[in-house]
Amino acid sequence: MQRYWRKRLPLGKGGSTAVTAILINGQKLVVANVGDSRAVICKNGVANQLSIDHEPSREKGRIESRGGFVSNIPGDVPRVDGQLAVARAFGNKSLKIHLSSEPDMSEQMIHDDIEFLILASDGIWKVMSNQEAVDCIKHIKDAHSAAKNLIEEALSRKSKDDISCVVVRFQR
């Protein structure tokens, strides 16, 4: 019997951001996020952001207290140690000591005026405002089709970042 041994590969420098939501008893929506993945609800046709984008400039003090720095190169966004454009993430081996992976959490009661929820990565939000995303899909009743439409719209706007999207429709 021939055995194959796979060499263990070293961990890369990459990491991730995330946004998640849970609906409790069909009434209370709890959202948690790390990084720049975002949760947005549509309430009576108006976009409301439920999560916080963790920008390095907003958390500069915490990053510096951990021995890191926030760069502000003209023409670029603020970056942790000149590399990462978010102050919170998980899995970034080389920056882990300067980052936080603690999520921010928010709660939203779901009433009849809440139409849908968008959970998406920054590939959507870098090319669309919250309201543009809501307007792009508010006429689409099928949640899967709405998410697909948002992704296609981000691609048509030449998004260069990762694009992930989930849409959740609420019964009215």
UniProtKB/TrEMBL annotation:
SUPFAM superfamilies: PP2C-like. Residues 1-170 form the PPM-type phosphatase domain. CDD domains: PP2Cc. GO terms for molecular function: protein serine/threonine phosphatase activity. InterPro entries: PP2C (IPR015655), PPM-type-like_dom_sf (IPR036457), PPM-type_phosphatase-like_dom (IPR001932). PANTHER family: PROTEIN PHOSPHATASE (PTHR47992). This is PPM-type phosphatase domain-containing protein.
